[in-house]
Amino acid sequence: EPEVTQTPSHQVTQMGQEVILRCVPISNHLYFYWYRQILGQKVEFLVSFYNNEISEKSEIFDDQFSVERPDGSNFTLKIRSTKLEDSAMYFCASRGAIYTDTQYFGPGTRLTVL
Amino acid sequence: AQTVTQSQPEMSVQEAETVTLSCTYDTSESDYYLFWYKQPPSRQMILVIRQEAYKQQNATENRFSVNFQKAAKSFSLKISDSQLGDAAMYFCAYRSLQYNNNDMRFGAGTRLTVKP
Lengths: 114, 116
Hints:
heterodimer, A: mainly beta, Immunoglobulin-like, 7-stranded mixed β-sheet, 4-stranded antiparallel β-sheet, 50% strand, B: 116 residues, mainly beta
């Protein structure tokens, strides 16, 4: 069964460094999402992406964040200058073309900022 | 904005027994989807069950079923014949079907413990 994959599974970085989290959505999906879950808290929406542009973003998704689909398969989340409070689990999700389709989540990347 | 509330931070059930996890939500929309996700210690988000708001019939997936009360904006999850592998965090989620507003809104979660 096709699935969303994410790399790396765990990323450790120093405060102020840039990180890129990678996701490979399900191949025929057209809508892509990033969510964040700080330890012990709820999952929060960051951004959605469709047709090579951001379709919606939350207030969390400020100027230090950016997303890109550099090729036909990868979907990346870049955090330009990481802060301690960026430490969280980051989930990528994708869904098909029909707006009623379910979003499927990847296994997540645990980001630790020291 | 839509909000999702899970009023039970923790629940416990004996193996083979039945447990119900509560979820309420707030919305002014008439058409939407509701979901229950399971998050085991690995922290992966696993879809358990989905309910379309326009359907009156409650969704069922094997041992998992929902009690969807649209007027009351309630969406509870019933786990029958609980197994040790059911132990996890369970998140209720709402998804609007409005164009360009279809991100998932999650509740705070309920941690389910299954006692042998």
